[in-house]
């Protein structure tokens, strides 16, 4: 299927009826372009595109499609709020949808990227208004979403007080210049100095 796009065949040759029902088909970039932009092989990309296209018939993932797919993969364990935050981190250009190129470039960074690249993505997950800083409001929303996803930690009820305590702890740790917000460089620098966070990153990579 991807080879048809990459070799220049007209898109009507690879658009099925379900694609037409869901709107105009958005083809991926040429295969050689994505090989150059990611750390996936051409064969990896063909398999990924087949899986992506099976779920996203039009060639793009909307917020609704993406959230539904996460719920299916994780057996509905993913909360709606966490799924939306994850979608926003993939949708770096804030277009309201994720292209196949968006998807594989982000996945490549998470699977094969350096620690700095992974931390940059984690920062983007927190910074959902994409202003380059993590605010208290954003941090509170993410911690609440994680509680909804995983359940409150042992011995904690996930109350407003518990969440506020975690937010205060993180700001004391990461807001080095005490300006009431966490910048990207502050976040990455502190993370790279924290052995527990580095071990968590390793576990995160192994779980993907």
Order of helices and strands: HHHHEHHEHHEHHEHH
Q: From the alpha carbons, calculate the radius of gyration and give it in angstroms.
A: 19 Å
Q: What is the averaged pLDDT score?
A: 81
Largest sheet: 2 strands, antiparallel
Number of domains: 2
- Named CATH architecture of the largest domain: Orthogonal Bundle
Total beta strands: 4
Organism: Echinococcus granulosus (Hydatid tapeworm)
Keywords: Calcium, Metal-binding, Repeat
Domain EF-hand: 78-113, 114-149, 162-197
InterPro entries: EF-hand-dom_pair, EF_Hand_1_Ca_BS, EF_hand_dom, Recoverin
Annotation keywords:
63% helix, two-stranded antiparallel ribbon, disordered N terminus, repeat, Recoverin, domain 1, EF_hand_dom, calcium, mainly alpha, 5% strand, single chain, calcium ion binding, EF_Hand_1_Ca_BS, 208 residues
List strands and helices in order, with pairings.
Blueprint: H1 2-6, H2 17-21, H3 31-37, H4 42-55, E1 60-62, H5 63-73, H6 80-90, E2 97-99, H7 100-112, H8 115-126, E3 133-134, H9 136-150, H10 160-174, E4 182-183, H11 184-193, H12 195-207
Antiparallel strand pairs: 1-2, 3-4
Helix pairs in contact: 5-6, 6-8, 6-9, 8-11, 9-10
């Amino acid at each position: 299927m991807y080879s048809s796009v990459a070799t220049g065949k007209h898109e009507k040759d690879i658009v099925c009826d379900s694609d037409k029902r869901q709107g105009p088909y958005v083809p991926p970039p040429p295969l050689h372009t994505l090989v150059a932009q990611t750390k996936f092989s051409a064969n990896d990309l063909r398999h990924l595109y087949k899986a992506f296209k099976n779920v996203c018939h039009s060639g793009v993932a909307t917020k609704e499609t993406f959230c539904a797919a996460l719920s299916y993969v994780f057996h509905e364990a993913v909360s709606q709020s966490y799924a939306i935050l994850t979608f926003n981190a993939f949708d770096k250009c804030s277009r309201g949808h994720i292209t196949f190129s968006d998807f594989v470039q982000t996945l490549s960074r998470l699977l094969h990227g350096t620690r700095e690249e992974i931390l940059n993505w984690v920062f983007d997950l927190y910074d959902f208004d994409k202003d380059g800083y993590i605010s208290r409001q954003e941090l509170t929303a993410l911690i609440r979403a994680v509680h909804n996803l995983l359940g409150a930690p042992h011995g904690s009820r996930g109350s407003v007080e518990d969440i506020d305590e975690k937010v205060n702890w993180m700001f004391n740790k990461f807001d080095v210049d005490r300006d009431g917000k966490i910048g990207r460089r502050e976040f990455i620098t502190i993370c790279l100095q924290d052995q527990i966070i580095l071990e968590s990153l390793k576990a995160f990579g192994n779980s993907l």
